[in-house]
Design brief:
The chain is of the alpha/beta class and 252 residues long. The protein folds into two domains: 155 residues, Rossmann fold (3-Layer(aba) Sandwich); 65 residues, no CATH class. Helices cover 35% and strands 23% of the residues. It has nine helices and ten strands. The protein has a six-stranded mixed β-sheet with strand order 6-7-8-3-9-10, with helices on both faces. A four-stranded antiparallel β-sheet has the order 2-1-4-5, covered by helices on one side. A hairpin with a 2-residue loop joins strand 9 and strand 10. Helix 4 crosses helix 5. The longest helix has 18 residues. The chain is globular and about 60 Å long. The termini are far apart. The mean pLDDT is 87. GO terms for molecular function: ATP binding; ATP hydrolysis activity. This is ABC transporter ATP-binding protein. Keywords: ATP-binding, Nucleotide-binding, Transport.
Length: 252
């Protein structure tokens, strides 16, 4: 996958500025940066949910803005909130794409769905509603739903957000395992430093819409760039409070 001078503006507001980047097949690439830096917007360009203001995104040598690319290249996006249908069971959430596109008989669909559930250790949740599941299980269901599409490219938008440290580590291990066993290319947008430094082949740091570095986790740990060190290791300075102190009798 390649980004060639990708820029995006919403009105007069620039969101992405001249992003050029190659992501190798089979790689886990983690994109980090502060909130509002353009990470999710960049991801949306890959699946054609946003059109570039300038430049382009190529997936398997094809322009991502062309609908034919999404038909030719299997891509799946794991949304931050899961985007599961609460009116459907977990099983039916996974089967929906296969049924809608008539990708097999019901027996073949069942085989694919149950295999994905087994990979994510979700067999016992097959008949449950997503509303009955914990946040971590819903994330795993969203990944399982992406797997049934047999993607060549798997995109994750904040896959460990709102999860406790143990479940965050579990999701990180799942992403790494999928690379090992399926050779899927993974692009992960995340604030999770442990995920990025633990499983990424390379990490990109996006700030103010600009890609300020692309490097390995080991090199990132050794960075002396204050923008990166302050982001990865923020300091709490209680001597300089950010909010005005209220007087004792001042109403809040």
């Amino acid at each position: 996958m390649r980004f060639e001078g990708l820029s995006k503006r919403f009105g007069e507001q620039p969101v992405l500025r001249d992003i050029s980047l190659d992501i190798e097949p089979g790689e886990i690439f983690v994109l980090m940066g502060p909130s509002g830096s353009g990470k999710s917007v960049l991801l949306k360009h890959v699946v054609g949910l946003e059109a570039p203001s300038a430049g382009r995104v190529l997936v398997a040598g094809r322009d991502a803005a062309d609908p034919a690319t999404r038909r030719a290249v299997h891509m799946a996006l794991v949304f931050q909130a899961g985007a599961l249908f609460n009116s459907l069971s977990v099983y039916d959430n996974l089967a929906l794409y296969l049924r809608e596109h008539r990708l097999g008989t019901e027996a073949q669909i069942r085989e694919k769905v149950m295999r994905a559930l087994q990979i994510l250790s979700l067999e016992s949740a097959a008949r449950k509603s997503p509303a009955e599941l914990s946040g971590g299980m819903r994330k795993r269901v969203a990944i399982a739903r992406a797997l049934v599409m047999e993607p060549q490219l798997l995109l994750y938008d904040e896959p460990t957000s709102e999860l406790d440290p143990v479940m965050s580590a579990t999701i990180s291990e799942i992403i790494a395992t999928l690379k090992t066993h399926y050779r899927v290319t993974s692009v992960v947008v995340s604030h999770d430093r442990d995920l990025a430094l633990g499983i990424a082949d390379r990490v990109g740091i996006l700030m103010g819409g600009e890609l300020i570095t692309t490097t390995t986790p080991a090199e990132l740990r050794r960075s002396t760039d204050p923008r990166i060190t302050d982001f990865l290791n923020p300091r709490i300075d209680l001597s300089a409070p950010r909010f005005k102190k209220l007087e004792p009798n001042q109403p809040s």
